Amino acid sequence: MVLEKFRLKRRSGIVTGGGSGIGKAIAQGLVEAGAEIVIAGRNREKLEGTAREIRQFGGPVIPVQADTAKMEDIENLVDRTLKEFGKIDFLFNNAGIIRRSPSEDFLEKDWDEVININLKGPFFLAQAVARVMISQKRKGKIINTCSLLAVQGGKRVPAYAASKGGLAQVTKSMANDWAKYNILVNGIGPGWVKTELTEPLHQDKQRSIEITSRIPLGRWADPEDLAGAAVFLASDASDYITGQIIFIDGGWLSM
To answer: Which entry of 85, 90, 92, 160 is annotated as an active-site residue?
Structure first.
């Protein structure tokens, strides 16, 4: 039955940025589909609250405090996941930050922080996870959270646009390198989603109206709108898809 291909029973993996927003919604969707997961992030309190909340849908759900811009935290995260589950079937590189400022005023420290968290961290965490998959000779799925700004410039977010454009290209490069190991690497490209990162724009009535008026579906996404694609890309249903970015944008890029 085709529906069986979407089930994630006995599959285990990692969701970074799993304490809130898109990461939380993805984590819950994976757990509902039968997966066991580690959720990682920098805010321990948020992680523990989210873990308690989504355990009602299945589990186990293990919160691990980690800053994936730091190599030692990446190593510890992978080691902890292996200790808990003995294997890693999927990784969702979802952790990310944004800094807003006109390009002429953008600060070096903000540039470095955004690039380290949004681009360096996902690459080296994917590398560490892929090494485990290769050594265990296991099929694997790696999914990176990209953005509309992987293909558009945006406004007042030069480092974020650079990081997401880079992550989209890294996704394709990793997909090519690791296809021979049956490790499939794809990306999700969210459109305008109601999260903490976008709250300032969503609360700016004029800007929010400008954004909403260009979305054919006529609304911002809720984080839960991304869970279906996440389950699909982690499951056997996507076993012939690699190197792709699936944009979940309410039709924004079709305009």
So the answer is: 160
